[in-house]
Amino acid sequence: MKVTEHIEKANGKALFSFEILPPLKGQNIQSIFDSIDPLMEFKPPFIDVTYHREEYAFKELPNGLLEKKIVKKRPGTVGICSAIQNKYQVDAVPHILCGGFTKEDTENFLIDLDFLGIKNVLALRGDAVKSEIYFRPEKEGNEYAAELVTQISNLNRGVYLDDDLQNTSATDFCIGVAGYPEKHMEAPSLDTDIYHLKQKIKNGAAYIVTQMFFDNKKFFAFTDKCRKEGITVPIIPGLKPISTKKQLNQIPHRFKVDLPDALVMEIIKAKDNEAVKQIGIEWCIAQSKELIASGIPVLHYYSMGKSDNIKAVAAEVF
Ligand code: FAD
User: Fold this and answer.
1) pLDDT digits over 157-170, tens only?
2) pTM of structure
3) Residue 82 needs a FRET pair 20 to 30 A away by CA distance; which of 32, 61, 63, 209 works?
4) For ligand 1, which residues put their CB under 6 angstroms from it?
């Protein structure tokens, strides 16, 4: 079923969902099942699986020269989605990127998903390759998520890249896109970012999932702005419970979001990471309850491979 159909069917009741990362290359799929199993009691109607593009690795050769290699550290998004749908009968939402994909690659990726019975995708631009500062699209690729949404919408109408193809079969993907309550790091302002977000909706996206945030006021202000701009699709808040002191610096650096002073001060005073984890869980429970009271359709948790703190939150909220 599509994410939007799950939301309609819930008839106003907030749903529980979460995102997982494929394991590092060399590990097996059991680690994924181990992180999903404890969360199944909260009946997630869909589970997101992130996509990780290639990185450059440099290996020193005996002659002192460096050999540049392209590596994919976390392959397996499509296989994991298929396994989730088979094992749990829960819809999987693979993330799909512009970065590292030509339009032809994208089309073939979507064909695989369609053949596997996957009905949902989260369409993203992706970040720059790790060793580079700015995002560079592939030569024959999509530059922005809005263009990727157009390509998927075209396929949903049976329009393939090769216009010589005849009697084509149309796909039927429900397309989600990313939104940023504290604006995307490259956007000159929140207003321009929302302007581009609106384009993704115009091109066919049916819902928005937000970047993590720790201050609900930012989410409410963002939602108000989106509604004023005429964006009417469901906006799903993304939440992450903080679990270590290190994350006080890592999260703002990696995701370009602010942490409220009250949360930061509590964490600074915590005696160890066990105490930090408890603070993160309680903060996330309070955020979740307030968001549900405001009428959000789904709460989406960033599990980042660890399910025990998400389970502790969900047990209090769902
Ligand atoms: P876009 O919507 O294309 O926007 C990127 C930037 O370009 C923004 O600043 C926007 O304002 C601007 N912009 C858009 N259109 C135009 C235009 N026409 N002209 C000028 N500027 C424009 N990354 C991964 O690698 N794998 C994942 O699985 C993944 N999952 C994610 C899930 C969620 C819910 C979120 C919020 C992010 C995720 N990301 C993931 C990170 C994401 O790829 C990055 O944040 C990326 O930098 C932007 O992606 P986007 O789809 O928002 O890009």
Assistant:
1) 999 999 999 999 99
2) 0.97
3) 209
4) 50-51, 53, 95, 97, 122, 124-127, 144-146, 178, 184, 186-187, 192-193, 196, 200, 209, 211, 238
